[in-house]
Amino acid sequence: DDISDITYLNGSFFTTNYDLSGNAGNQIDLISFSLNENGSFIDDSFHLDINGQGYLSITNDGSDIYMQSRSTQLLFKFSSVGEIAYARYDSIDTKWMPSGISYHSSSDSLIMLYRNIHKNSEYRLRLLSKDIDQSSNKDVSFEVLDIDTTNHGIYSLSYFDSVLYMLAVRDNEDVLITMNYEDLSIISTEMIGDSTVMGIAIHNNLIYFSYRDRRIQKFRDL
Question: Which terminal residue of the chain, N or C, has fewer Cβ atoms less than 10 Å from its own Cβ?
Answer without folding.
Answer: C
